[in-house]
TrEMBL record:
Main enzyme class: hydrolase
Enzyme Commission number: 3.5.1.19
One Pfam family per UniProt: Isochorismatase
Recorded coiled-coil stretches: none
Signal peptide segment: none
One Gene Ontology molecular-function label: nicotinamidase activity
Gene from which this protein is expressed: pncA
PANTHER family: LD05707P, PYRAZINAMIDASE/NICOTINAMIDASE
Protein name per the record: nicotinamidase
Record's keyword terms, sorted: Hydrolase, Metal-binding, Pyridine nucleotide biosynthesis
Top-rank taxon, per record: Bacteria
Species: Kiloniella antarctica
Length: 211
């Protein structure tokens, strides 16, 4: 798409997990994650509405490798809802790593959705936890406010942004991912797979200069 998109009051910017542990020096740092912050701040200024998600794990969360004997970070295990990547400890409730990046414009955020706070279930998507049935309540909130289009940005393109975008489509929203306002972990070609799947289900991949 090369034409400019006209933003209205039925559009919302969804800022995904721009938290210290996913940025430079964090325990699960996304390569160049910090670079999204100035781009996102500029986007927040363009939108009538902006909200954010925040990973918010208890210290003994089941998605942490440290919660499983003899398991290394980035290995996989089976949890009650299926296969789960085991991560380094990250975004622990109330600790510095779970805080938003200090330069992110938080003052304009109308809602913060905390996810992953249930010890037994990880949560990538802003809409559902990883069991794909436990709702965060975001869809109902957006529908009640008359939101039609969701524009996603943040960390990481191939995990929480990707899962949120897929679920946004499933919930009936017109969905856009602002590629230059995201960064990826890119484990085992996960970025290419995520981008392909998003396009297949109708997510539009755009850049910030189209807004």
């Amino acid at each position: 798409m090369s034409h400019s998109l006209e933003l209205t009051s039925t559009d919302i910017l969804l800022v995904v997990d721009v938290q210290n542990d996913f940025c430079d020096g964090g325990t699960l740092a996304v390569p160049n994650g910090d670079q999204v912050v100035p781009v996102i701040n500029g986007l927040i200024d363009c939108f009538h509405h902006s909200i954010a998600t925040q990973d918010w794990h208890p210290a003994d969360h089941q998605s942490f490798a440290s919660s499983h004997e003899n398991q290394e970070p980035f290995s996989t295990t089976e949890l009650s809802y299926g296969s789960q990547i085991l991560w380094p400890d990250h975004c622990i409730q109330g600790e510095t790593g779970s805080g938003f990046h200090k330069d992110l414009d938080q003052d304009s955020l109308e809602l913060i959705i905390r996810k992953g706070f249930r010890k037994e279930i990880d949560s990538y998507s802003a809409f559902f936890e990883n069991d794909k049935s436990t709702k965060t309540g975001l869809a109902g909130y957006l529908q009640n406010r008359g939101i039609k289009r969701i524009f996603l940005c943040g960390l990481a393109t191939d995990f929480c942004v990707y899962y949120s975008a897929i679920d946004a489509i499933k919930q009936g929203f017109e969905t856009f991912v602002i590629a230059d306002a995201c960064r990826a972990i890119d484990m085992d070609d996960s970025l290419a797979r995520a981008m392909t799947h998003m396009r297949e289900v109708g997510v539009e991949i755009i850049s910030s200069d189209e807004l």
